[in-house]
TrEMBL record:
Belongs to the DNA polymerase type-Y family. It holds the Pfam family IMS_HHH. The lineage of its organism: Eukaryota, Metazoa, Chordata, Craniata, Vertebrata. GO terms for molecular function: damaged DNA binding; DNA-directed DNA polymerase activity; zinc ion binding. It comes from Takifugu rubripes. The gene is polk. Its main location: nucleus. This is DNA polymerase kappa. It catalyses: DNA(n) + a 2'-deoxyribonucleoside 5'-triphosphate = DNA(n+1) + diphosphate. Its EC number is 2.7.7.7.
DNA sequence: ATACATACC
DNA sequence: GACTGGTATGTAT
């Protein structure tokens, strides 16, 4: 087990899987991050989670030991059959674009306050940053880093509070432009979207400049252009901060691109999957292809099917139409709260907020879920499904307060020492 | 159906 | 001193 426990493997370390983070003093940065985190409840919890992942790896390695040549051969045949099927359906006829405004929130703030352009700045608070500009990234300051640690890395860092209404406004301008190119484009967040350019290109024969030179200049917008969504997403990351990258629509180009692609770059393969794969000697997508038989024996069907598609450079060649929402939730973090009455009134407040949001979309749901995080960062969810859909604050609270009471009773005589509470509702009609 | 984990922005 | 919030989906029971 110890082999996984070196500091550099613990999750705290600088995540440099992001544009603008090349060639900085990683050791120094990691040392500062580590010193700011060590001993905190947050850190302790991260270590615990890390150990759970390591146990998963140990279990997987034991399973691997049990696999015989016979098993592998059979699996290999199955994989080969599947590859034939997938190749038959490979579609290189579409042109999918992934657009991603670079450092979006920071870019909007710099547009509105040009002095910030020459300074390292980030958007967020001392508790959490949501993005940083490129000056700040040189110091290792990045999204999802708490501001107080960022300040240690870069004492001159300017932290601008988040201004969502502003970002939403800019976002809707940008979306109007997207709609000109593909009325069915798929927004992934305020600053990111997939577009199907196929039709547009058939009509106009040329690449639009306006996506680059539109009056909104505060933010550059890298594009990834490829025959499917999976590849377009990876491509958009390629020439950040300013460029675009087009992957030709040929099987050879796709396979060559995918060959050297680190698995972590693929959307859907995060930190944990990367670590599991690394333990099997897999770091690039070509390794993924080479070890498919093994993967099919160690992972779930959904997981290995996904891996197989990635290894072949396959992804969705059309942009699925926007799905109905499946859940809605509100959660809040706060200073330690242990008093029952206080927790109850907060719960009530959250239910009211949630009911408000539900009303805006005219939704009612049958499953109510209460989420609790204690001061040790341990998260619990407790759910109850009703036979009828609910929407009002009173109805939701009636369920949530019982879930909360049950939890408190289970812990008593110890109180629930909370740092976060949340309510979720799902199972809409 | 429920709980928890992973992933994305 | 301070380590988010919202949504979807996978995995396990």
């Amino acid at each position: 087990n110890f082999q996984y426990m070196e500091e550099k493997n613990i999750k705290m370390a600088l995540n440099d899987n992001k544009a603008g983070m090349e060639g900085l003093d990683r050791d120094k940065i990691n040392k500062i991050i580590m010193e700011s985190s060590k001993g905190s409840k947050f850190y302790e919890n991260e270590v615990k989670r890390e150990q759970q992942v390591n146990q998963r790896i140990d279990k997987m390695m034991l399973q691997k030991e049990q696999i015989t040549e016979q098993h592998l051969k059979k699996a290999q045949a199955q994989v080969a059959r599947m590859v034939v099927e997938l190749e038959k359906r490979r579609d290189l006829t579409r042109v999918i674009v992934h657009v991603d405004m670079d450092a979006f929130y920071a870019a909007v703030e710099m547009r509105d306050c040009p002095e910030l352009k020459d300074k390292p700045m980030a958007v967020g608070s001392m508790s959490m940053l949501s993005t940083s500009n490129y000056h700040a990234r040189k110091y290792g300051v990045r999204a999802a880093m708490p501001g107080f640690i960022a300040k240690k890395l870069c004492p001159n860092l300017v932290i601008v509070p988040t201004n969502f209404d502003k970002y939403r406004a800019v976002s809707s301008e940008i979306r109007e432009i997207f709609a000109d190119y593909d009325p069915n484009f798929m927004p992934m967040s305020l600053d990111e979207a997939y577009l199907d350019f196929t039709e547009h290109l058939e009509k106009r024969q040329s690449w639009p400049d306006s996506l680059r030179t539109h009056h909104y200049r505060a933010s550059s917008n890298p594009k990834g252009i490829a025959p499917n969504m999976m590849l377009a997403k990876v491509c958009s990351d390629k020439n950040k901060p300013n460029g675009q990258y087009r992957l030709p629509s040929t099987r050879e180009a796709v396979m060559e691109f995918v060959c050297n692609l680190p698995v972590r770059k693929v959307s859907g393969i995060g930190k944990v999957s990367e670590k599991l794969l690394n333990a099997l000697g897999i770091s690039s997508c070509s390794h993924l292809g080479q070890k498919m038989a093994l993967l099919s024996l160690l992972f779930s069907e959904t997981a290995w099917h996904h891996f197989l598609q990635v290894s072949l450079g396959l992804g969705s060649a059309f942009i699925p139409r926007h799905e109905e929402r499946k859940s809605m939730s509100t959660e809040r973090t706060f200073k330690e709260m242990s008093a029952a009455e206080e927790q109850l009134s907060l719960c009530r407040e959250l239910c009211e907020d949630l009911a408000n949001d539900l009303k805006k979309e005219g939704l009612k749901g049958k499953t109510v879920t209460l989420k609790l995080k204690n001061v040790n960062f341990e998260v619990k969810t407790r759910a109850l499904t009703l036979s009828y859909p609910v929407a009002t604050a009173d109805e939701i609270f009636a369920v949530a307060k019982d879930l909360l009471k049950t939890e408190r009773d289970n812990e008593s005589p110890q109180p629930l020492r909370l740092r976060l509470m949340g309510n979720q509702i799902k199972q809409f009609n």
